[in-house]
Amino acid sequence: MAVPKRKMGRARTHARRSTNDKISMPARSICPQCGEVKLPHRVCGNCGYYRDREVIETE
Prior knowledge:
By secondary structure, the protein is of the alpha+beta class. The chain is built from one helix and four strands, in the order αββββ. The strands form two sheets. Strands 1-2 form a two-stranded antiparallel sheet. Strands 3-4 form a two-stranded antiparallel ribbon. The radius of gyration is 22 Å and the shape is rod-shaped.
């Protein structure tokens, strides 16, 4: 069984993890009503529409 001879430093551990454990950017879609960028399957925060109908009333 392999056993490390010395403790691995915090900086080295974080440097290794920084390239492999990155969180990818969330997916984006464009609102068909107003053209704003929004998260998919969510109500548009700008116009309040979801699937071609108004869900939230906005000014």
